[in-house]
Description:
Layout: H1 2-33, H2 47-59, E1 63-65, H3 67-78, E2 88-91, E3 97-105, E4 108-121, E5 126-136, E6 139-141, H4 143-153, E7 158-161, E8 164-168, H5 176-179, E9 183-190, E10 195-201, H6 203-217
Antiparallel strand pairs: 1-10, 2-3, 3-4, 4-5, 5-6, 5-8, 7-8, 9-10
Amino acid sequence: MKITRKRSKIRIIMLSVFVFLLAAAGIAYALARSDPNPPLAAAEHADGIAVRMMQAAVTGEPVCLTEEEVGFLLSRSLTRDKRIQGVRLSINDDQTVNVYVPVLYKQMPLGISAVVAPGLDSASKQITAAVQSVRIGRLPVPPGWFLSRVKKEAPDRFQVQGNTVRMQSSLLSGLSLSNGNILHLSGLSVSDDGFLVNITADMDTLKNYLERFLKRAR
């Protein structure tokens, strides 16, 4: 009799745990599918950004790009992967950056939000983003767990080292000037006003590009 009661209690406990786990999984799924972020705004034109970057290359002074401009450049580069729908950035008071990336994962739309500390590894010419927190929809997830999965799915130009994501020269690849190795990213920092970007250029190549451009414009 006692053995039967014990077995019944064990079954009830196991059933309760199973129901709890099932409910937790359902809540987690609902939070992950619930995206609190507004849709991405329409993309802007790159010509004005390119002109300012050329001026920065000539003067040696950094150009200050807005959150929208950097988001646009990153979107132009990253949306070559059809799973990535775009990028939106916003700068926090401590100069970290909120990153929002809507993606299609196995044909399921998800909104990925992260807080990162961006920088530039001048030796490797890679943009770096130290990931501090991640949400899928409304669901907070450990950055390490999330990045371990990104590492398996990410395109070749992405590298994941610990909690840091590295991107090979992705900021300028949204501009036609970068395709001919005319402009090169040499510095990246965050200020209250926006992103301070240092640009270098092969001046002879830049001169030839501008001459060809002016001839076509006549």
